[in-house]
């Protein structure tokens, strides 16, 4: 299989699935095994006052799956970079990332602070090697995520059946889609972008305000990683009670409030 280069000049253009509204620009990128339908409840809340642009990430939705891609954070971010540059945006914008999209957004933000007004990370699966965590409970919890993800990667039939069952009861049609077509992007993104992430290091280097929005019932959030992120002085954390991982109406309302208020200077975390 030919090795695909993720450098800026070679990165593919992603699918821009929506561009509605007018005002300050908000670019939204979704998570793994999903598409821009992730923002079904969020876009209507923002488009009366913002220009809302939704983009399918590399390998998912309507975006391409390049031969030889490894779906690392660098490759995902390079494709996002080329796509955003093609939009020729004139002013700094807000970048919203959900789940894996939040990790991609953080990697993009490290090198593009002049293009960004702020970074909004939603339902972020921020992990680090268990050996780096002092608390034994948090260390065991972190290790469990890696064990589960490895099992999912190594058992495609089980994983696709489980995803199909979850998709059947999901509140938004097509918000979770795992098929033979996107299995390779899913498996490699899981291994090379989520499990192998350095998002904590990325966030420490970001030089724009960061808002972290998450549901209190989100099963994909690791307490150890979340606690460390909230200690960064330029991060505000917004905990939303009664919601999990998917952006349902209540979580969408919380994200819309965060996007609509002025970015905060480097400040302390807060909760909702």
UniProtKB/TrEMBL annotation:
AB hydrolase-1 domain segment(s): 24-242
A GO MF term: hydrolase activity
Domain of life: Bacteria
Keyword terms of this UniProt record: Hydrolase
One Pfam entry name: Abhydrolase_1
SUPFAM superfamilies listed in its UniProt record: alpha/beta-Hydrolases
Name the UniProt record assigns to this protein: Alpha/beta hydrolase
Protein species of origin: Microcella humidisoli
């Amino acid at each position: 299989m030919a090795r695909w280069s993720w450098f800026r000049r070679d990165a593919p253009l992603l699918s821009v699935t929506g561009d509605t509204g007018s005002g300050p620009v908000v670019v939204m990128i979704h998570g793994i095994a999903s598409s821009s339908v992730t923002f079904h409840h969020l876009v209507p809340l923002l488009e009366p006052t913002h220009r809302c642009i939704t983009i399918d990430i590399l390998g998912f939705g309507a975006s391409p799956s390049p031969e030889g891609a490894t779906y690392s954070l660098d490759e995902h971010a390079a494709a996002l970079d080329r796509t955003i540059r093609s939009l020729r945006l004139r002013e700094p914008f807000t970048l919203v990332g959900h789940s894996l999209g939040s990790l991609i957004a953080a990697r993009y933000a490290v090198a593009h602070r002049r293009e960004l007004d702020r970074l909004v990370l939603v339902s972020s699966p921020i992990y680090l090697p268990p050996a780096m965590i002092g608390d034994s409970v948090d260390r065991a919890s972190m290790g469990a995520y890696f064990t589960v993800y490895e099992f999912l990667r190594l058992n495609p039939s089980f994983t696709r059946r489980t995803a199909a069952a979850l998709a059947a009861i999901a509140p938004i049609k097509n918000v979770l889609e795992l098929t033979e077509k996107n299995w390779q992007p899913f498996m490699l993104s899981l291994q090379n972008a989520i499990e192998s992430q350095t998002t904590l290091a990325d966030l420490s280097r970001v030089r724009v305000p960061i808002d972290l929005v998450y549901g209190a019932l989100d099963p994909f959030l690791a307490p150890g990683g979340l606690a460390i992120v909230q200690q960064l002085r330029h991060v505000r954390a917004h905990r939303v009670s009664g919601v999990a991982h998917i952006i349902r109406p209540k979580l969408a309302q919380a994200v819309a409030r965060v996007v609509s208020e002025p970015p905060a200077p480097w400040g302390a975390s807060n909760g909702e």
